[in-house]
User: Fold FadR family transcriptional regulator from Sphingomonas naasensis.
Amino acid sequence: MQRSIMEDAGTALSASSARSALGHNLTLGLVDALGRAIVAGECANGMLPTEPELERRFAVSRSVVREAVKMLAAKGLVVTRPRQGSRIEPCTAWDLFDPLVLDWMVEGSIAPEMLRQLCAFSMSIEPAAAALAAQSGGAGGHAAIAAACHRIAQRQGQWPLRIDATIAFHRAVISASGNVFYLRTGDAIDAAHRVLARHGMAERPALLPHYPAIARAIEVGAAERARREMTTLLVRLFEPVLGGTAAA
Assistant:
């Protein structure tokens, strides 16, 4: 069984290995290691290990530890108080639009309720984005959607590549909407689709005809049809997570 990074390294050799795993930039490596541990719920009693403990476990300097903790605090994951240490914040305080936080959630063990909320968020944004793309998306945006749709069709039987293409399709629709606020949600929407793919819930051939239907509606400027087609796709795609509430 693989040792959690939050377990005491115990020896100089294991501390050296932990340091090597951080990569060339020790600060960013420590941010990544601690962020993954926090999101995975590996920190005992809702606290980060103390600065001396982190120095010893990862064989890094105090300045590296402090800078890493400061960066985690900026993402809302921890709050540090003098003589009290660094407390893990509830996920409601995290910057859930931060690309790194989203990566840690996707690649770790995302809580079922968090996944449900992520899918519901996508449901609230993507149909409207499809309608906007049909109304105001320029030729470049439509071309990106068509290209992603073509890649989906070309990846028959190649699920990892097809998943990449479907995620590119959803991102292209968001981009073509032209709404700067929707653009800010792109990483979160990507995360919802990546989690489904990671758990095998997106690998359903019956979903594939929906992509060209959405692309055609956007291309001809049929906003309400684009909205309906995207809604239908997402209801079916997210059904394993949202159940009957996806259609609500």
Summary: The chain has a mean pLDDT of 87. Residues 127 and 228 are 7 Å apart (CA to CA). The chain is about 65% helix and 5% strand. The chain has two domains: 15-101, 112-243.
